[in-house]
Automatic annotation (TrEMBL):
<keyword id="KW-0249">Electron transport</keyword>
<comment type="similarity">
    <text>Belongs to the thioredoxin family.</text>
</comment>
<feature type="repeat" description="TPR">
    <location>
        <begin position="136"/>
        <end position="169"/>
    </location>
</feature>
<dbReference type="InterPro" id="IPR011990">
    <property type="entry name" value="TPR-like_helical_dom_sf"/>
</dbReference>
<dbReference type="InterPro" id="IPR036249">
    <property type="entry name" value="Thioredoxin-like_sf"/>
</dbReference>
<keyword id="KW-0813">Transport</keyword>
<dbReference type="GO" id="GO:0005829">
    <property type="term" value="C:cytosol"/>
</dbReference>
<feature type="domain" description="Thioredoxin">
    <location>
        <begin position="14"/>
        <end position="130"/>
    </location>
</feature>
<dbReference type="InterPro" id="IPR017937">
    <property type="entry name" value="Thioredoxin_CS"/>
</dbReference>
<dbReference type="Pfam" id="PF14559">
    <property type="entry name" value="TPR_19"/>
</dbReference>
<dbReference type="GO" id="GO:0015035">
    <property type="term" value="F:protein-disulfide reductase activity"/>
</dbReference>
<dbReference type="GO" id="GO:0045454">
    <property type="term" value="P:cell redox homeostasis"/>
</dbReference>
<dbReference type="InterPro" id="IPR005746">
    <property type="entry name" value="Thioredoxin"/>
</dbReference>
<dbReference type="Pfam" id="PF14561">
    <property type="entry name" value="TPR_20"/>
</dbReference>
<keyword id="KW-1015">Disulfide bond</keyword>
<dbReference type="Pfam" id="PF00085">
    <property type="entry name" value="Thioredoxin"/>
</dbReference>
<dbReference type="InterPro" id="IPR019734">
    <property type="entry name" value="TPR_rpt"/>
</dbReference>
Length: 309
């Protein structure tokens, strides 16, 4: 979310006393001190600078109103028509609309310019209202969606915003590290992992990043050997080392399902080979992929059927 302030709203703002209806009001230059500055000592006040001719304002305004109304008085919204209040718009250096400011304790604490998706608007309002749990979950979900789509810069921005709400959140930190890996900045990831405090270093999501990094090192250049290793396994299905190497090559080539199949077949043939090396490697794959990845979910079912057949 493009912010117009360096600092975001406090992660845990003072609990507001609550605003009585109406929660969305029109205001003016003459009433600004009363409606915004003084009112913000009671709780967060969102100011929407808009104009009737502004197309994006017609989308943003109603979305903001819906988000504010859902907070049941924890936050208020004040609408300022810039055409009718040009002096006030000039005082706040409004250069484009819509522009949104958020006030708390008489001071601006956050804001953004331009229209945003309704999900981000909802997160913005929840954060101001002190509903940091919901805001955090929304931020993380949006960030992961961006990362999955390849919009890494947008994902980093949202993961960083999540860290402002909870600086010790392992999932948010892991998200930033995954973004850095997607950008190819592997050395920065190594350095960050080495410097993390124990509470974060042992987090499951951080462990998954570490496993991904180790696998990247382990499979570097291996994908070129897929055909050779496949032929070797076809020639001797009980060549467990070749099958393990093939699994690593497939994983490095972006085929985690195929990699898992090779290891499961090795376990099916001889689960004790090399101190259960195939199973240990499979667990590393699953740790890197995460518990909800299809290859992990399906692989766990297959492994159970093999072990308890």
């Amino acid at each position: 979310m493009p912010s117009i302030f360096d600092a975001h709203a406090p992660a845990q703002p003072p609990k507001p006393q609550g605003f009585a209806p109406p929660l969305v009001i029109e205001s003016s230059t003459a009433q600004f001190v009363t409606d915004v500055i003084e009112a913000s000592r009671q709780g967060p006040v969102i100011v929407d600078f808009w104009a009737p001719w502004c197309g994006p304002c017609k989308t943003l305004g109603p979305a903001l109103e819906r988000a504010v109304t859902r907070m049941n008085g924890a936050v208020r919204m004040v609408k300022i028509n810039v055409d009718e209040n040009q002096a006030l718009a000039g005082q706040f250096r409004i250069q484009s609309i819509p522009t949104v400011y958020a006030f708390l304790d008489g001071k601006p604490v956050d804001g953004f310019m331009g229209a945003l998706p309704e999900s981000q608007i909802k997160t913005f309002v929840e954060r101001l209202a002190g509903d940091t749990g919901a805001a955090l979950e929304d931020l993380l979900a949006q960030a992961q969606a961006f990362l999955d789509e390849g919009a890494v810069d947008d994902a980093i921005d949202l993961f960083q915003q999540a860290l402002t709400l909870d600086p010790a959140h392992g999932g948010a930190m892991a998200g930033i590290l995954r973004c850095q890996m997607a950008l190819g900045d592997v050395e920065a990831v190594r350095e960050a992992l080495a410097e993390l405090p124990p509470a974060l270093a042992n987090h499951a999501d951080i462990a998954a990043v570490r496993a991904t990094l180790e696998l990247a090192d382990q499979t570097a250049g291996a994908s070129a050997d897929v055909r050779r290793l496949q032929a070797q396994v076809d020639a001797n299905p009980d060549d467990h080392q070749a099958r393990l190497d093939l699994a690593l090559a497939l994983f490095g080539a972006g085929d985690p399902e195929g990699a898992g199949e090779q290891l499961l077949e090795s376990i099916r043939r001889d689960r004790t080979w090399n101190d259960a090396a195939a199973r240990q490697q499979l667990l590393k794959f699953w740790e890197a992929l995460g518990p909800t990845h299809p290859a992990t979910v399906q692989g766990r079912r297959r492994l159970s059927s093999i072990l308890f057949a």
